[in-house]
């Protein structure tokens, strides 16, 4: 159970860490400090108000004391010693109250000074925290932006790596096809491969084709000479000669051992 509790707390802590935004935490802390500063200021105001009330009471009692002293003097001047004694007795009681109020006034004044100094120090700390908070927030925002940019570049680098591999494969295949096409062209030019008709030519067929081509040229040349000389057509002579010799040629072909098929 302890292990499960530890695992749960670890996962919860990790989830909270992912969900926590330092900028929000700093703003919350700053807000709490402002609230504390406001309470201190209200305390200073309350103490100052109490001090002011004591000052008003002191002024009132001191005025009554001065009035009783004046009345006692007048009564004594009129020969009324009893009234003068009563006035002085009342003045003495007021003086005791004045003394007690003066002590309270000094105490409140000291507390007010302490609270005012504390409020000033707290104000300075809050201002310093605010400056530091804004600096940290700006730094965090910049670091977050840099991290996102770096992650984007990392993704782009991976994609470009895949693209580079694809380009390399395409170039390799292209080079392979070009080499194959060049080799086929060389083989066709050398006669090592069959032509497009798919019929192989042996040496005898090649020699017959060469002789046939040469005969056509000779016949054309004889015809042109005959036309220039005004004689019979060389083509007709060739045809007549070919007609007479055709059976003989067929006989020779039938008797040739290589055409017995």
Structural features, described:
This protein has helices spanning 2-19, 22-77, 81-190, 203-229, 234-255. It is mostly helical. The protein has two domains: 2-158, Orthogonal Bundle (Helix Hairpins), CATH 1.10.287; 211-240. Residues 197-201 and 242-261 have low confidence and may be disordered. Helices cover 89% and strands 0% of the residues. Helix 2 (22-77) packs antiparallel against helix 3 (81-190).
Keywords:
261 residues; mainly alpha; Helix Hairpins; 89% helix; rod-shaped
Short description:
This protein is an all-alpha fold and 261 residues long. The protein is 89% helix and 0% strand.
Q: Give the low-pLDDT segments.
A: 197-201, 242-261
What would you call the shape? rod-shaped
Rounded radius of gyration (Å)? 64 Å
CATH top level label of the largest domain:
Mainly Alpha
How is the CATH topology of the largest domain named? Helix Hairpins
How much β-strand is present in the residues? under 5%
Mean pLDDT: 75
- What is the H/E string? HHHHH
Note the total helix count. 5
Helix content range: over 70%
Number of domains: 2
Q: How many beta-strand elements?
A: 0
Terminal Cα separation, in Å? 100 Å
CATH architecture of the largest domain: Orthogonal Bundle
Sheet having the most strands: none
Task: Specify the structural class.
Answer: mainly alpha
């Amino acid at each position: 159970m302890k292990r499960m509790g530890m695992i749960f707390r670890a996962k919860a802590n990790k989830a909270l860490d992912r969900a926590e935004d330092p900028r929000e935490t700093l703003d919350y802390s700053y807000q709490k400090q402002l609230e504390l500063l406001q309470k201190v200021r209200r305390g200073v105001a309350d103490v100052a108000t109490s001090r002011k009330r004591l000052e008003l009471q002191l002024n009132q009692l001191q005025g009554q004391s001065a009035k009783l002293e004046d009345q006692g003097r007048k009564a004594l001047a009129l020969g009324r010693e009893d009234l003068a004694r009563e006035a002085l007795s009342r003045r003495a009681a007021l003086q005791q109250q004045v003394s007690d109020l003066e002590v309270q006034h000094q105490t409140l004044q000291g507390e007010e000074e302490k609270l005012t100094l504390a409020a000033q120090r707290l104000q300075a700390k809050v201002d310093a925290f605010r400056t530091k908070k804004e600096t940290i927030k700006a730094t965090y925002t910049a670091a977050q932006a840099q991290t996102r940019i770096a992650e984007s570049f990392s993704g782009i680098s991976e994609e470009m790596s895949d693209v580079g591999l694809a380009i390399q494969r395409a170039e390799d295949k292209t080079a392979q096809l070009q080499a194959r096409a060049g080799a086929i062209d060389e083989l066709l030019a050398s006669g090592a491969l069959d032509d497009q008709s798919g019929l192989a030519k042996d040496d005898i067929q090649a020699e017959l084709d060469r002789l046939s081509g040469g005969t056509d040229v000779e016949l054309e040349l004889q015809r042109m000479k005959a036309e220039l000389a005004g004689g019979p057509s060389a083509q007709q002579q060739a045809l007549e000669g070919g007609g007479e010799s055709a059976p003989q040629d067929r006989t020779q072909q039938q008797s040739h051992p290589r055409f017995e098929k």
